């Protein structure tokens, strides 16, 4: 399987200079994380070369849904699922979006020559891990898991804090790869304080990295019907091997 050319961080990043800003609230929005060429190639890969599935969760229930072919839901069943998810999410945690679990594929040895494999390698290379260590002042980060996500109108992720027993998640990251986005389209990464107010919200701007300490309450706001395109990201957690 031919490998794709590597992806690169922007060489001008100065994470040590941003350490205080990160420490203030345990989060940071870093514009221009990749070279322009790497960001453009990744956006193209998410648009034309990603085998998306639907993923829906309410409480502890999880559905993985093929988006086309014989297993795909009919429009009527899809709408019924949306109604069920809305009903059950009213009382607690829920989400619906599309994803492709890059680390599951790579770690199972299923490399197919996709650019997303080069993204996995970038996130697990010393340059990115050093960037995180320099930004956070934390020597522990050892590796990253990664999934591609696509939020279309009607997609959302309710409040949660990313803690998962035994997963050794230190920081969460979201690399936004949507070329244009308006805040009024929804899909904002919201940070929620103890009173349930939004203390900060990040619009998914192109080629920006959002990074934040785990645990920390956050949500992705509902993507409105008037969003003119999908919200595309690579996201996951920066972890220790424990
Ligand atoms: O896509 C985002 O901005 C955040 C995603 C997230 O919080 C998660 O997947 O746990
Ligand atoms: Fe999260």
UniProtKB/TrEMBL annotation:
Residues 142-240 form the Fe2OG dioxygenase domain. One of its GO terms (cellular component) is cytoplasm. SMART domains: P4Hc (SM00702). GO terms for molecular function: iron ion binding; L-ascorbic acid binding; peptidyl-proline dioxygenase activity. The keyword Oxidoreductase applies. Transmembrane segments: none annotated. One of its GO terms (biological process) is regulation of translational termination. The keyword Metal-binding applies. PROSITE patterns: FE2OG_OXY. Keywords: Dioxygenase, Iron, Metal-binding, Oxidoreductase, Vitamin C. InterPro entries: Oxoglu/Fe-dep_dioxygenase_dom, Pro_4_hyd_alph, TPA1/OFD1_N, uS12_prolyl_hydroxylase. Its cofactor is L-ascorbate. It comes from the Bacteria. PANTHER family: HISTONE ACETYLTRANSFERASE COMPLEX, PROLYL 3-HYDROXYLASE OGFOD1. This is Fe2OG dioxygenase domain-containing protein.
